């Protein structure tokens, strides 16, 4: 049986895709990239932005067309959109299976039934905001910990989820409604999984959580925090770089986490901590529990403990009620924060969220677009300045593989192709070298810079 898996969305979704793919390969499926060859197509979906859902729907339209001549093709939709839309998605002519993120341990059985009995199946979590019953949590934990997954697209790197769900209810965000409340995984299961990955040659582990810094697990007298996890994982032989994403601006454990970063050569000096807005009025409307000034103080604290920490941020422009003055507060924050890079999104209402129910989407598409471009320009200038500091310096990078944009670098590499790599501080570096370096560390010297890319030669 041949399986095609298509994935949309964030790193959390990519990890689910890797887990499901690995489970189905163990069950005898072989992977294909061609829909013509596939017996089963799984689409892992994202609900965070409207655009992501539209792409999935358009893909399903394409599959419906294919199924007219191949009615035996089984199509399953998993992920956040499956949980959000449930039986409405099952009504789509192309779809056989709809399975939410907390139900993925059942995926093999659902596919087997669909192949045999040609019936439609729905597996979504009822009352998702309640803590799951123990047997369900246990099934998810077993499914998750059974697979020591190396990210096949990036050699020697892997992602390990440390917690599921989110308790924050930012007013624009659908995640708490599709992934449920925060559940931290047992530390021993996480450590075991990291050991297994390291034994398979994985050198860089990224710990994942929607609010990874709120990881908390009570074991006997001790409550484990992310700082404890990083400390323990940093002592595992073979693990050379450790990262964690995404952090919510919060007081809890913050100094401890930064101190582990300062003290452990294996914890990368990188912090991804979205602010979303610089305006206190908008932060309040977003239900983010801090002010702009407090957030900037937190960055100062991070830099006091780890002076060279590189920081990335996220912003939403055009949130309901955002005036020019509010937007200017965001611009000021970006200028003060001096992010390595910032991901900037235009607000779009997500059905079922508090901001969609209670607030009018007042900012026009043109204004959102203008603010997006303006903010990107402010950030680009800062990124460019920070990148220039690397000129002439030697840095250690972990090579990911062939560069996807070789035209960016005209430096001749003695017949070697252009490779893409990353520094511990998450800067993208391209240089010419043999493909055999993929998954290896390499020392390079920076010869040229642009806001988002450093160009280098091998030392
Ligand atoms: S912290 Fe806020 S934005 Fe992040 S997943 Fe939770 S609710 Fe969504």
Count of β-strands: 21
> In the CATH hierarchy, what is the architecture of the largest domain at level 2?
Alpha-Beta Horseshoe
Bound ions, cofactors and other small molecules, one mention each? iron/sulfur cluster
Strand order of the largest sheet: 2-1-3-4-5-6
N-to-C CA distance:
47 Å
Structural class: alpha/beta
The overall pLDDT average reads 93
Largest sheet: 6 strands, parallel
What is Rg? 23 Å
CATH topology of the largest domain: pyruvate-formate lyase- activating enzyme
Instruction: Kindly report the name of the CATH homologous superfamily of the largest domain.
Output: tm_1862 like domain
* Fraction of residues in helix: 25-40%
Shape: globular
Count of individual domains = 3
Percent strand equals: 15-25%
Which CATH C-level class of the largest domain is it? Alpha Beta
Number of helical regions: 15
In the predicted model, the low-confidence regions spanning at least 5 consecutive residues are none
Primary descriptors:
15 helices, 3 domains, 37% helix, 459 residues, alpha/beta, six-stranded parallel β-sheet, binds iron/sulfur cluster, Rossmann fold, pyruvate-formate lyase- activating enzyme, five-stranded mixed beta barrel, OB fold (Dihydrolipoamide Acetyltransferase, E2P)
Topology:
Elements: E1 2-7, H1 11-26, E2 30-31, E3 40-45, H2 50-69, E4 74-79, H3 80-85, H4 87-90, E5 97-99, H5 107-117, E6 121-123, H6 134-145, E7 157-161, E8 163-164, H7 175-179, E9 183-184, H8 187-199, E10 204-208, E11 216-219, E12 222-225, H9 226-233, E13 241-245, H10 254-263, E14 270-272, H11 280-285, H12 292-305, E15 310-317, H13 324-337, E16 341-346, H14 354-358, H15 365-388, E17 394-402, E18 418-423, E19 428-432, E20 441-449, E21 453-458
Parallel strand pairs: 1-2, 1-3, 3-4, 4-5, 5-6, 7-10, 10-13, 14-15, 15-16, 19-21
Antiparallel strand pairs: 8-9, 11-12, 17-18, 17-20, 18-19, 20-21
The structure holds iron/sulfur cluster (SF4).
């Amino acid at each position: 049986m041949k399986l095609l898996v298509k994935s949309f969305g964030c790193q959390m979704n990519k990890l689910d895709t890797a887990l499901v793919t690995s489970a189905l390969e163990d069950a005898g499926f072989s992977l294909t990239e061609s829909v013509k060859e596939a017996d089963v197509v799984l689409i892992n979906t994202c609900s965070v932005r409207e655009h992501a859902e539209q792409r999935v729907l358009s893909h399903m339209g394409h599959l419906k067309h294919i199924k007219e001549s191949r009615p035996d093709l089984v199509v399953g939709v998993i992920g956040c959109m499956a949980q959000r839309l449930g039986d409405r998605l099952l009504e789509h002519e192309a779809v056989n299976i709809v399975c939410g993120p907390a139900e993925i341990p059942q995926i093999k059985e659902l596919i087997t039934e669909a192949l045999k009995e040609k019936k439609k199946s729905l597996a979504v979590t009822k009352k998702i905001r309640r803590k799951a019953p123990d047997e369900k949590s246990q099934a998810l934990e077993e499914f998750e910990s059974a697979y020591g997954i190396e990210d096949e697209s990036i050699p020697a790197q892997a992602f390990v989820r440390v917690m599921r769900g989110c308790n924050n209810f930012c007013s624009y965000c659908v995640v708490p409604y599709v992934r449920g409340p925060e559940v931290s995984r047992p530390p021993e299961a996480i450590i075991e999984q990291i050991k297994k990955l390291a034994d398979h040659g994985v050198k860089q582990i990224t710990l994942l959580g929607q609010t990874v810094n709120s990881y908390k697990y009570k074991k006997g007298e001790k409550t484990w925090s992310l700082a404890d996890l990083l400390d323990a994982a940093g002592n595992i032989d073979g693990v050379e770089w450790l990262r964690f994403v995404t952090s919510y601006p919060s007081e809890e454990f913050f100094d401890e986490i930064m101190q582990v970063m300062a003290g452990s050569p294996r914890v990368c000096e990188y912090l991804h901590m979205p602010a979303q807005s610089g305006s206190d009025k908008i932060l309040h409307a977003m239900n983010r529990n801090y002010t702009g000034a407090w957030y900037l103080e937190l960055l100062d604290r991070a830099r006091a403990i780890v002076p060279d920490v590189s920081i990335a941020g996220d912003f939403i422009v055009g949130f309901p009620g955002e005036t020019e003055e509010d937007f200017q507060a965001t611009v000021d924050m970006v200028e003060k924060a001096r992010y390595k890079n910032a991901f900037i999104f235009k607000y779009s209402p997500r059905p079922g969220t508090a901001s969609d129910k209670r607030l009018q989407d007042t900012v026009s598409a043109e204004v959102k677009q203008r603010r997006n471009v303006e903010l990107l320009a402010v950030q680009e200038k800062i990124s460019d300045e920070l990148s220039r500091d690397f000129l002439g310096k030697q840095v250690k990078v972990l090579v990911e593989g062939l560069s996807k944009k070789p035209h960016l670098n005209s430096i001749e590499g003695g017949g070697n192709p252009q490779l893409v790599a990353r520094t511990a501080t998450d800067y993208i570096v391209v240089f010419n070298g043999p493909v055999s370096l993929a998954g290896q560390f390499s020392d390079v010297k920076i010869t040229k810079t642009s806001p988002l890319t450093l160009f280098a030669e091998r030392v």
